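Saturday, quiet lab. Running sequence design on the structure tokens for the scaffold JK sent over.
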């Protein structure tokens, strides 16, 4: 196979266009080269983008068996395990990354985050502190560290950390949420409501923000106002749980474009645009004419068409491919 053809196939796989790239996979793997890891990474990433987690994991497992000290292989395996919510496996994979690359700040942050998912705040804290040395992860690691300190009842330390973070990032929803939850725990209900209302203005569809605001309002004696936020949060969680159920359907039936489209629509509806777009495009990967996916993409790009000519063009493209209902 010519080098150019090979690079084109890897680019297709990396972008999730598996319908075109997958037929060549066996041939690529049957001709071992120094860049076998590049093949596994590109194709596993493509399978991951199409939520074919078992296929992605199969490739990465072969890669880690062949190169057990390769941090890229273990990090990709951790990415797949996080997507599948396999927290114990992700924790192990991230530790394997850090055994070889102790300065891998992404792995440090995600290991701390995964340990929090496993309700291990004490174990999470050192990794989050290390991740803060990289400016890219400073804010998210400190948000996670506030949560860990809250879980441990170390409120004084959490308050000190939150004060500096809020001063540096006063208009970031995740920061306002972390600060507001802490203030609710400390009985500072007025400040908590103020910060959580600001977070709600920034991310009105976030179930975590709406629930945090509801809890603060109820604690402040404003139960009637809290009710609508509790109801909205419950509704969103129900829809996201349905999306999770549909992901299990897709795992069994990868070509189910209807399920893929519904997942994408739910995620777009509740402010997870990056993931929602991936799911909608994956529906079209299996059925390029699937009308519901084209309609939802057309609506999405229409709403943003004033931002750039490219988005307006995408809106027109998908509207033309979506027959009227």
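Result came back. Writing it out in full:
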């Amino acid at each position: 196979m010519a080098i150019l053809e090979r690079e084109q196939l890897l680019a297709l796989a990396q972008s999730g266009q598996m319908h075109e790239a997958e037929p060549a996979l066996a041939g690529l793997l049957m001709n071992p080269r120094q860049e076998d890891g590049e093949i596994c990474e590109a194709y596993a990433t493509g399978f991951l983008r199409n939520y074919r987690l078992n296929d992605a994991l199969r490739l990465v497992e072969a890669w880690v068996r062949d190169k057990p000290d390769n941090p890229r292989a273990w990090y990709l395996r951790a990415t797949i395990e996080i997507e599948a919510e396999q927290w114990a496996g992700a924790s192990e994979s991230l530790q394997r990354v850090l055994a070889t690359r102790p300065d891998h700040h992404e792995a440090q942050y995600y290991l701390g985050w995964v340990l929090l998912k496993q309700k291990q705040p004490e174990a999470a804290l050192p990794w989050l502190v290390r991740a803060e040395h990289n400016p890219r992860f400073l804010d998210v690691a400190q948000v996670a560290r506030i949560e860990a300190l809250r879980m441990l009842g170390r409120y004084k330390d959490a308050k000190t950390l939150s004060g500096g973070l809020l001063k540096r990032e006063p208009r970031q929803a995740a920061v306002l949420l972390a600060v507001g939850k802490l203030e609710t725990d400390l009985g500072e209900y007025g400040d908590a409501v103020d910060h959580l209302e600001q977070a709600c203005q920034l991310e009105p569809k976030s179930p975590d923000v709406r629930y945090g605001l509801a809890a603060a309002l109820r604690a402040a004696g404003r139960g009637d106002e809290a009710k609508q936020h509790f109801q909205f949060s419950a509704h969103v969680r129900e829809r996201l749980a349905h999306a999770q159920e549909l992901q299990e359907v897709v795992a069994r039936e990868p070509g189910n474009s209807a399920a893929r489209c519904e997942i994408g629509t739910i995620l777009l509806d509740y402010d997870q645009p990056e993931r929602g777009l991936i799911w909608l495009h994956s529906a079209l990967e299996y059925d390029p004419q699937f009308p519901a996916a084209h309609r939802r993409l057309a609506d999405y790009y229409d709403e943003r068409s004033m931002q750039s000519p490219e988005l307006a063009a995408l809106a027109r493209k998908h509207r033309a491919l979506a027959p009227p209902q």
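Notes for JK: The first helix runs from residue 3 to 14. The chain is about 75% helix and 0% strand. Ask whether to fix the surface positions before the next round.
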